[in-house]
Amino acid sequence: MTVVRYIEANGTEHRVEAENGISAMEAAVKHSVPGIDGDCGGAAACATCHVYVDPEWLAKTGPAADGLEKSMLEFAEDVRETSRLACQIEVTGKLDGLVLRLPDRQH
Amino acid sequence: MTALASATTTATEADSLPLDRIDVSRADLFERNVEGDYFRRLRREDPVHYCAESTYGPYWSVTKYNDIMAVDTNHQVFSSEAGYGGIVIDDNIQKGGDDGLQLPNFIAMDPPRHDEQRKAVSPIVAPGNLAKLEGTIRERVCRVLDNLPVGEEFDWVDNVSIELTTQMLATLFDFPFAERRKLTRWSDVTTAEPGGGIIDSWGQRKGELLECAGYFQNLWNERVNLTEPKSDLISMLAHSPATRNMKPEEYLGNVLLLIVGGNDTTRNSMTGGVYALHQNPAEDAKLRNNPALIDSMVPEIIRWQTPLAHMRRTAVADAELGGKTIRKGDKVVMWYVSGNRDETAIDRPDEFIIDRQRPRQHLSFGFGIHRCVGNRLAEMQLRILWEEILQRFSRIEVLREPERVRSNFVRGYANLPVRLHA
Fold it and tell me: Is the ipTM here above 0.90?
């Protein structure tokens, strides 16, 4: 189990003990974290699991991948250097304590 | 008894043909509402199906949810480019018959041009702008609903669905409000083939669309030189670096894309929701006991209706899909209407269930870079409509079965006779 902290735009924090091997989107949906939709089920094809990786963690998660993840983020709202699609972040032991901030709403 | 008898007939019809004779592009299947039997058979027996002969030439049908997702997210191999035929099965919709009108637009483009042009218009449906539109939409919904007769028969399609979606479009384009039904007509004409009841010939279609082009050219000319650009779609196109130097036919193409995208789709979901609740009285009761379910009902309506039955791509390289080899140059049709009924991806897919766990997992908006740009606006319009319906009417009684549109693309209703109960 790996701890992932999801922080809503209004500051509310959801601390989730996520199973290793699933994505940060799936972990959020499983634990009913509001503000992560995941409409496409994890294919980087809808951009409704847009998150901002806390800058301290960005080196460990890596930036958005070339290909579909980057293309889909092109059309998301308020995209920043730290933007990722949570469905493309695999939960592993090295991410224990990972902080992901959520946008106002998924668009 | 009649309904049962006809159900048996169509099941036999879909099951009796040899597989290689099945052609799901026949518009009459959709008009008769029997396409579901054909797609059920293809999903079961030949989910990636080749049809060698049809009105539109040979094409592949992709019928299962995951295969559709695989095509939709692989835009490098499955192109939307107009030059290959664009995004609907009928190449003529893109090129307008033999001496037709070319209508380039960003949904029928690949990156990078697609990305640039899409970004020019997407701010109109950004969250901030949607919040601004909400009040206007609610006010108009209330006005339309308050003027409906209670206890008398009327057509829901014309009086509510068309009226509300057309008003919305007029607002987005800042189009002369009194002439807004022109938008409805141009939307219908854009997706029409001769013989479907809307136009008689490609020539007639071209004539009407040129009239549309002239009208929109005037609106462009009025707005392009304003030093303070207005916030409507035409002003956005006229002022964005990505679109301000478009050729006239490309401007028309993009305008028509936005008209069709915002019109047929939401219109038929507005009607589909009424029809679905009529067919499922237990769901109607659930909704009335708990109006908060509107939030999950809206995406369920959009799935259940699937207002655009398909999107088409053209393979630009050989590709394997579901054990079949698709060749470079082949036409590939993703049948969203079938993927949204795929029992291996969606629980009890034929049923209308307003409190599904993951209601937004459906294909109606497409996935990948061409995903519907207006999806949140569409959901907002439907949400407000249902919030206000529940405030006013205890029941919307459907008096007779609706007539359906003869089209393999727009999955919609020509009419829906209803009576409101106070």
Answer: yes
